[in-house]
Design brief:
465 residues, mainly alpha, globular, transmembrane, Xan_ur_permease, transport, transmembrane helix
Length: 465
């Protein structure tokens, strides 16, 4: 009898695969969209302005990027065949491509050819990345906790300046940029989120960031910081017509440039998948990473058909998962649905655009700080009682923080090299992997020694003294 009952017992569902009530999935999914919206729309706004697009075309390009971000999110969260990590990942336009895309625009003799050149280069880079995913994923064995913890910490630290920039305002050239009003709104939003997290329970506690954004937006109205004009001027329906800006063009220089961006994007996505795997307690193995990279690269290859750019996993949403502890991938799939709807309905997209940038900045401090805290938790389990590991963390963090503390540090390097060097996540990740190989795999000499400081004297020196 007991054997029969054991056979009939339902198999427990992992929180990642859990389907929550529809209302909870919808509101939590909207919270993910709110957290990453500014990051999705910033690249098309910058690139579109560089290409000299009209206001109408700029709105179209932004909507197209929202639409393709939603499709890429579906690939990553729901997946099919061997495509998709099936983790709560939000995908969107990678900011790593902004600099090379503006460089491509500057090199184009005819500005009308610039976007088709970019789209053609992204297609090729995406297809090459898709083919390389099974090989690239094998690097997972070079990511022990000392490496993943360092990278997760760097992801959070690298994102914090974004939150600080949002807190100051949307336009650095504006007279009120960094004003007491903007910083006060950011501080109030941060305080609201903290109070909700401290004094509420259950579902309200889990959507504290979304409630903080709503409250912050309402509070900003008397200060004149909330602009509802995007809602009034937005169209109700708008479909991203394929190849709206012209058929893709294929130029070697542009393709090589975007292939470099693809390598950077795949490196960061690998780090993000490892980070999220730790947070949701489903560690990412080679198979998961390969499937996730296929989703990233396939999404990137398909994106230009609908006038979108290269897609990648959004690190800021990892912080939201870490803070809310809502680990269901279907919640993020709901968020992908919202992105698709916003791409098809500019009026809906404009509702998120109403949230003042300082309000986003206040919430961003919590989100991005949570990522860094998750990295520190991983480092605690990494064996920092070993001097080798302490040195790996110390040097990797220092190199990864260089682009944050000294943005012009690599100004003398070629633009192609700066695509990698200006990404603290990428440089820190590569440094951590290489140092881990050198110190923990090649000719290990003192890996059993416990120290309290990386500069502590070794046994040989101590004996002489």
């Amino acid at each position: 009898m007991s054997a029969q009952s054991a056979e009939a017992a339902p198999v427990p569902v992992h929180p990642v695969d859990e389907k929550l009530p529809a209302l909870k999935m919808a509101t939590s999914g909207l919270q993910h969209v709110a957290a990453m919206y500014a990051g999705v729309v910033a690249p098309p706004l910058i690139v579109g302005a560089a290409a000299g697009l009209s206001g109408t075309d700029l709105t179209f390009l932004t909507g197209a990027c929202l639409f393709t971000a939603g499709l890429a999110t579906f690939l990553q969260t729901l997946g099919f065949w061997k495509i998709g990590a099936r983790l709560p990942f939000v995908n969107g336009v990678t900011f790593a491509g902004v600099a090379p895309m503006t460089a491509i625009i500057a090199s184009a003799k005819d500005k009308s050819d610039a976007l088709p050149m970019i789209f053609g280069a992204v297609m090729v880079a995406g297809l090459l990345g898709f083919l390389a995913a099974p090989v690239f994923c094998k690097a997972v064995r070079f990511f022990p906790p000392v490496v993943t913890g360092t990278v997760i910490t760097l992801i959070g630290v690298s994102l914090l300046p974004v939150a600080f920039g949002w807190a100051q305002g949307p336009d650095p050239s504006a007279h009120d940029y960094g004003s007491t009003t903007n910083l006060t709104l950011a501080g109030i939003t941060l305080l609201i989120v903290l109070l909700l997290r401290r004094f509420t329970r259950g579902f309200v506690k889990q959507i504290a960031v979304l409630l903080g954004l709503i409250a912050g937006t309402l509070i900003a109205i008397p200060f004149g910081a909330t602009d509802f004009s995007p809602v009034a001027s937005a169209d109700l329906i708008g479909f991203p017509t394929p190849f709206h800006f012209g058929a893709p063009q294929f130029h070697i220089a542009a393709i090589l440039s975007m292939c470099v961006v693809m390598v950077v994007s795949m490196t960061e996505s690998t780090a993000d998948m490892l980070a999220l795997g730790e947070i949701v307690e489903r560690p990412s193995d080679e198979r998961t990473i390969a499937a996730g990279l296929r989703a990233d690269t396939l999404g990137s290859a398909l994106s230009p058909f609908f006038n979108g750019f290269m897609c990648s996993a959004f690190a800021q949403n990892i912080g939201l998962v870490a803070m809310t502890r809502i680990r269901s991938r279907f919640v993020v799939a709901f968020g992908g649905g919202f992105l698709v709807l916003m791409g098809l309905c500019p009026a809906a997209a404009s509702l998120i655009a109403v949230v003042p940038r300082p309000v986003l900045g206040g919430a961003g401090v919590v989100l991005f700080g949570s990522v860094a805290a998750s990295g520190i938790q991983t480092l605690v389990r990494a064996g920092l009682d070993k001097d080798n590991n302490v040195l790996i963390v110390a040097v990797s963090l220092a190199i990864g923080i260089v682009p944050i503390t000294a943005p012009d540090f690599y100004h003398a390097f070629p633009d192609t090299a700066r695509i990698v060097l200006d990404s603290g996540i990428s440089t820190g990740c590569v440094t951590a992997v290489l140092l881990n190989l050198v110190f923990n795999h090649l000719g290990r000499s003192r890996d059993a020694q416990d120290v309290t400081h990386p500069m502590e004297a070794g046994e040989e020196l101590a004996s002489v003294q």
